[in-house]
């Protein structure tokens, strides 16, 4: 399985591709904190193309969410897949990571 192969920054949106685990945590952490500290805006982590995640990566998201909040911003996770959502709940970090709510379609 590939680690995060690409981080695309589009102003306040970081788009991740691949497996988000302990091997890619430092790279993703640096991108997130650079975004939080460099903008006067909220930050969105688009995880549409993240295939798997581990507890280390989830803890990074929880800590970065708190860091953003202390800086007066929000950090929101967008489009986590079923495997990512399952890990968030198994790790009991659902209260610490803000997941973007999407409107239900009819």
Automatic annotation (TrEMBL):
STAS domain: residues covered: 13-106
InterPro entries: MlaB-like_STAS (IPR058548), STAS_dom (IPR002645), STAS_dom_sf (IPR036513)
CDD domains linked to this entry: STAS_anti-anti-sigma_factors (cd07043)
Coiled-coil blocks: none
Record-linked Gene3D superfamilies: STAS domain (3.30.750.24)
PROSITE patterns: STAS (PS50801)
Leader sequence residues: none
Name of the protein this chain belongs to: STAS domain-containing protein
Species, as recorded: Nocardioides pinisoli
